[in-house]
From TrEMBL:
InterPro entries: A-glucoronidase_C_sf, GH, Glyco_hydro_67_aGlcAse, Glyco_hydro_67_aGlcAse_N, Glyco_hydro_67_C, Glyco_hydro_67_cat, Hex-like_dom2. One of its GO terms (biological process) is xylan catabolic process. GO terms for cellular component: extracellular region. One of its GO terms (molecular function) is alpha-glucuronidase activity. The active site is at 268 (proton donor), 342 (proton acceptor), 370 (proton acceptor). It comes from the Bacteria. SUPFAM superfamilies: (Trans)glycosidases, beta-N-acetylhexosaminidase-like domain. This is Xylan alpha-1,2-glucuronidase. Residues 111-429 form the Glycosyl hydrolase family 67 catalytic domain. It catalyses: Hydrolysis of (1->2)-alpha-D-(4-O-methyl)glucuronosyl links in the main chain of hardwood xylans. Homodimer. Its EC number is 3.2.1.131. Keywords: Carbohydrate metabolism, Glycosidase, Hydrolase, Polysaccharide degradation, Signal, Xylan degradation.
């Protein structure tokens, strides 16, 4: 039965079908072997088997073809027919084995999406260097904000037992170009740096290595105290630096290609350099010095906001990090969330993008849907990734977040995209079939941020179901508006962080009594009798001043602020006229209702697909859509009831049909 285990790699066939396939690999490396095995799994070549040659650019026959391969870099690929000794050969090549592996997956994708076996001409090079999953996996198996079961890593049976599933994980990641994985939660326990856990991480690194995936660890900044018995973790203390150097050397003895560290410091109670009145750069550079001799890097998160800081939470990361531009070591990359608060259904792009030109910035997206309905709600995140990446910073002409992230406008070679993984031990990995699309889209868009959400959705739908327009068209249609529907029924028009406390599932705009003011939804929406929204102009927190002058000018005026971000930047009257001619209140009510309506329409589209989709995947999705519709109504009705208790207004005629 179809259970979703194969993800989008649905070409597993009985071993016999591809026996006619002739694959020649030049060189016997684990990566070339993995590439060959992957091609052999598919039955695309069963009837008409071409000769496939897997070889790097240095192979004598490939070199003789004088193909323009240099531009492919060390991960790009070229797949196409060539003539070798009078024989038409399908050549899969690149400058490295990894390029060949990515080319093999590209070939399979081409065939899975309905491409012809006769005409093949595939060339691609990743635009972003580090394409990394962040697992928020704790050592006890619980995944923070994880909705797909326990951690995939079975720390109890590692390092001895290498679950074949780890290989399937690596295959799935390699198929979309992911080349790094941070194994443990950013809220890290020092234990993950002890010898037993280093051995476990090393076992995983061994499994992942042939697939071009490096292992990284989240490091707890106070580990020198907890594990080393030191009195301090002050980054400028020579003993502290020496402890990290020795620890790092120990890791590299087990994992020679260890990627480096990810650090969450001085954020939400985590220790960090600020505890010793040092800067984030002091902390990052100390760790960077430890990994530098081994070629490692440090990914230092900019997700900071302090309990004691009365400043608008949306401003704090910029305030803290912007003055540090140019102060980070060359093997440090600062990891910045897509928006300035926290993975909301919609956030304007983070003002740090474009504001630290001397520092490589890595963008962090959340693939797991902490604020978008967990595993059950269908929300394709491709449009959200694309929206942030395509945002214009207006720092220099034509500058977008994508061009900051890919290093092109600021001339950085260290570039990266991180995605907080949605993967767990559920049979279908991600908690639902459609959640798999978000993992897929993250990888594809990290490889090339310009791909576009719809083409990526089409690929995924064709590979996951079947490459027939009768399936792909409606599935993609459902997906493309699904995230906007979540925005509509949860946080329309720039609202944010109105979710229930702690778990963030379901509405809670009325919550006002949490001990930290910036955890309360009322802090974000500021609704009162007169209006709603967070004034981030000069009359309020002036957060807009953190954007480029040109963009700040635009955002200073509600009339030139995109309506979808209106309440993020402005406190406006309930009766404000919107572009539609409706009042803000009527518009909000309409949006909530539209979100609910979209879910109802997805259910209808999905119902119509019943004959075309295997029953296991169809039924689970149908059930989840029913849950989503119920909960979208809950969001709408609870939110509207609360706003009405504040503004005293009635439901405008013609909107919000009763549940
Ligand atoms: C969110 C999330 C936390 C997480 C934090 C982070 O606030 O709710 O669980 O630890 O982000 O990104 O560090």
């Amino acid at each position: 039965a179809e259970d979703g285990y194969d993800l989008w790699l649905r070409y597993r066939t009985p071993a016999t079908t591809s026996s006619a396939l002739k694959i020649e690999a030049r060189g016997d490396t684990p990566t070339l072997r993995a590439a060959g095995e992957e091609l052999r799994r598919s039955n695309f070549f069963a009837t008409k088997a071409p000769t496939i040659l897997l070889a790097t650019a240095t192979d004598r026959d490939v070199a003789a073809l004088r193909l323009p391969l240099a531009a492919l870099g060390d991960e790009g690929y070229r797949v196409g027919y060539v003539t070798l000794g009078n024989r038409r050969t399908l050549l899969v090549t690149g400058n490295t084995d990894r390029g060949v592996l990515y080319g093999s997956f590209a070939l399979l994708r081409h065939l899975q999406t309905g491409g012809s076996l006769d005409r093949i001409d595939l060339t691609s090079t990743p635009r972003v260097k580090l394409r990394v999953l962040n697992h928020w996996d704790n050592l006890d198996g619980v995944v923070e904000r994880g909705y797909a079961g326990a951690s995939l890593w079975d720390w109890w049976t590692l390092p001895d037992f290498r679950d074949p599933r780890y290989t399937d994980y690596a295959r799935a990641n390699a198929s979309i170009g992911i080349n790094g994985t941070v194994l443990n939660n950013v809220n890290a326990k020092a234990d993950s740096l002890t010898a037993p856990y280093i051995a476990k991480a090393a076992a995983l690194a061994d499994v992942f290595r042939p697939y071009g995936i490096k292992v990284y660890l989240s490091a707890r900044f106070s580990a020198p105290i907890e594990l080393g018995g030191l009195k301090t973790a002050d980054p400028l203390d020579p003993q502290v630096a020496a402890w990290w150097k020795a620890k790092t050397d120990e890791i590299y003895r087990s994992i020679p290609d260890f990627g480096g560290f990810l650090v969450k410091a001085n954020s939400e109670g985590q220790p960090g350099p600020r505890d010793y009145h040092r800067t984030h750069a002091d902390g990052a550079n100390m760790l960077a010095a430890a990994v530098a001799p081994h070629g490692g890097i440090v990914m230092w998160r900019a997700f900071v906001y302090a309990e004691t800081d009365p400043e608008d939470r949306a401003k704090q990361a910029y305030t803290e990090f912007k003055p540090l531009d140019g102060k980070f070591a060359s093997n440090v990359i600062v990891q910045v969330k897509n928006g300035a608060i926290d993975f909301q259904p919609r956030e304007p792009f983070h003002p740090l993008f474009g504001a630290m030109p001397k520092t490589p910035l890595m963008i962090e997206f959340q693939i797991t849907k902490e604020y978008l309905g967990f595993a059950t709600h269908l929300a394709y995140l491709g449009p959200m990734f694309a929206e942030t990446l395509g945002s214009e910073t207006m720092q220099t002409p034509g500058e977008t977040v994508a061009k900051v992230v890919d290093g092109s406008v600021e001339h950085h070679t260290l570039t990266g995209m991180a995605g907080v993984a949605n993967i767990g031990r559920d049979r279908d990995w991600a908690g639902s079939t459609f959640n798999q699309a978000n993992w897929y889209a993250f990888g594809r868009m990290a490889w090339d941020p310009t791909l576009g959400a719809a083409p990526v959705a089409r690929e995924w739908a064709a590979m996951t179901f079947a490459p027939s327009p009768k399936i792909v068209d409606p599935v993609v249609a459902m997906m493309m508006g699904s995230r906007e529907a979540v925005v509509d029924y949860m946080t329309p028009l720039g609202l944010a962080h109105v979710m229930a406390t702690g778990h963030h599932y379901g509405p809670g705009p009325w919550v006002a009594n949490l001990k930290r003011p910036e955890w309360n939804p009322v802090y974000y929406h500021r609704a009162d009798k007169a209006g709603i929204g967070f004034d981030r102009t000069k009359t309020g927190s002036d957060a807009i001043a953190q954007y480029s002058p040109a963009l700040a000018r635009q955002l200073a005026n509600p009339a030139t602020t995109p309506e979808r971000e209106l309440l993020w930047f402005h406190h406006v009257a309930w009766d404000r006229r919107m572009a539609s001619g409706r009042t803000l209140w009527a518009e909000m009510v309409g949006d909530y209702d539209q979100g609910v309506g979209y879910v109802a329409s997805m259910r209808r589209q999905w119902d119509a697909l019943k004959p075309s989709i295997d029953s296991a995947r169809w039924t689970k999705t149908a059930t989840y859509l029913a849950v989503q519709q119920r909960e979208a109504q809950w969001w709408r009705d609870a939110s509207l009831a609360y706003w009405m208790s504040v503004n005293g207004l009635p439901i405008p005629a013609g909107t919000a049909a009763p549940a």
